[in-house]
Amino acid sequence: MFESDIGPDAVLWILLAASALHAVEEHAMGWQGWAAEAIGPRIGAIPTWTDFWATNGAMIVFGASAAIVVFSAPGFGLGFAALCLINAIFFHVAPSVQAGRPNPGLFTAILLYIPIGIWAYVAAEDFALLSTGTVVLSIAVGAAAMAFALLALVLGSRLGYADVDPASLEEASSSTSSAPR
After folding, report:
1. Chain centroid to CA 140: how far?
2. Where are the domains of the chain?
3. What is the pLDDT at residue 131?
4. What CA–CA distances, in Å, run from 110 to 92, 125, 129, 158, 164?
5. How would DSSP label each residue in 124-147?
6. The overall pTM is greater than 0.90
7. Cβ partners under 8 Å of residue 81, min gap 6
8. Chunked in runs of 10, what are the mean pLDDT values of the chain (181 residues)?
């Protein structure tokens, strides 16, 4: 179905480009509001737009790293494909089916993440990089990356500092500096 001379490194670069489109769709469809309602109560933390951008920034680094090293470390490289597949299935398709309506990112998850994620594994097989151990390791790497993103969100809400509008800091600073002592 997907067999070609295109290597898994190129497929992972394509998947990274798909990730950019996925982030655009999530943003345009109001990911933060959806995540606050759908994910927040389950994990006890309300995701913010800052969380969204930080996570997507990390995804860019992960995807680029994966594409660069897939020939020497296929378990890690394909971990990016696994992450995208996990994201598509467990954070877009399943919740959308459960809710009876699409969530932000569903369309690119179905149209891009799932087929390109599968293509990455097929390309790895075509280049003799795929083994049972590589598949298992890649799923573990992808699942660990997703779990870390969620754990960071939860820990950040409990142990971290909240986002602050810089203008409010300036207002607070000017009001305390003009107050009599």
Report:
1. 15
2. 8-160
3. 97
4. 9, 22, 25, 33, 36
5. HHHTT---HHHHHHHHHHHHHHHH
6. no
7. 11, 12, 15, 66, 116, 117, 120, 121, 138, 142
8. 80 98 97 93 91 95 98 98 98 96 97 98 97 98 97 88 71 63 51
